[in-house]
From TrEMBL:
Annotated Formyl transferase N-terminal domain residues: 3-189
Residue sites binding N(1)-(5-phospho-beta-D-ribosyl)glycinamide per the record: 12-14
One GO location term (cellular component): cytosol
Function as written in the Swiss-Prot or TrEMBL entry: Catalyzes the transfer of a formyl group from 10-formyltetrahydrofolate to 5-phospho-ribosyl-glycinamide (GAR), producing 5-phospho-ribosyl-N-formylglycinamide (FGAR) and tetrahydrofolate.
EC number(s) per entry: 2.1.2.2
Gene Ontology MF, one: phosphoribosylglycinamide formyltransferase activity
Name assigned to this protein: Phosphoribosylglycinamide formyltransferase
Residues forming the catalytic site: 110
UniProt xrefs under PANTHER family: PHOSPHORIBOSYLGLYCINAMIDE FORMYLTRANSFERASE (PTHR43369:SF2)
GO biological process: 'de novo' IMP biosynthetic process
Database matches in InterPro entries: Formyl_transf_N, Formyl_transf_N_sf, GART
Gene name of the record: purN
Keywords annotated in UniProt: Purine biosynthesis, Transferase
Catalytic class of the enzyme: transferase
Organism: Mordavella massiliensis
Length: 212
């Protein structure tokens, strides 16, 4: 059974998609063991607690400097001893030590088709604002492993979504969530939980499902 730690900062709709997928059997061999938010007001914390999942807040604001925060953050994560860490709208930079310790065991959902509209400064609504400003016709979402760069790790799954006439950043964000994020994030977790994801030379290989 894959033990999942989900890191969140905001509304937690991706967390909800994971919880629902575990409940309805779309994701097998996995359980959400704990949730950590850097924001004590994140609605994601309420979603976790309503679901009976252990949830805590660890904020950089509560520590004198980033180094101390990183230490405490890593301690809290190690105490949970997760098999994988899922960044579901988590907006804090992951400490290098954590990336090294959990190499190819941290995954992130990003609301674009990487390598478009990703990297420093591209998060949340800003991604959709940039896509509309550029006039692209297709957007989407990506699940990838986290490495030392920003949105540079091996790509696990991507899904495209069409831009429509009259889209606002908010409308587009919602469509990308509904049609892509809430599907590919649970799917990626299911693939990992069932031993079907391998990383070779910085690329992800999805193994065939074994015949039962
Ligand atoms: C999601 O759209 C997620 O892809 C994005 O933040 C949103 C969180 O929503 N993440 C990033 O932009 C990371 N670079 P949620 O709290 O409702 O899941």
């Amino acid at each position: 059974m894959l033990k999942i730690l989900v890191l969140v900062s905001g509304g937690g709709t991706n967390l909800q998609a994971i919880l629902d997928a575990v409940d309805d059997g779309t994701v097998t061999n996995a359980e959400v063991a704990a949730v950590i938010s850097n924001n004590k007001n994140a609605y994601a914390l309420t979603r976790a607690r309503d679901h009976g999942v252990d949830a805590q807040c660890i904020s950089p604001k509560d520590f004198p400097d980033r180094e101390t925060f990183n230490e405490k953050f890593l301690e809290a994560v190690d105490a949970i001893a997760p098999d994988i860490i899922v960044l579901a709208g988590f907006l804090v930079v992951i400490p290098a030590e954590m990336i090294a310790r959990y190499r190819n065991r941290i995954i992130n959902i990003h609301p674009s088709l990487i390598p478009a509209f990703c990297g420093t400064g591209y998060y949340g609504l800003k991604v959709h604002e940039a896509a509309l400003a550029r006039g692209v016709k297709v957007v989407g979402a990506t699940v990838h492993f986290v490495d030392e760069g920003t949105d540079t790790g091996p790509i696990i799954l991507q899904k495209a979504v069409e831009v429509q006439e009259g889209d606002t950043p908010e409308i587009l964000q919602r469509r990308v969530m509904e049609q892509a994020e809430w599907k590919i994030l649970p799917r990626a977790i299911d693939l990992i939980a069932n031993g079907r994801v391998a990383v070779e030379e910085n690329k992800v290989k999805i193994k065939e499902e074994e015949q039962r």
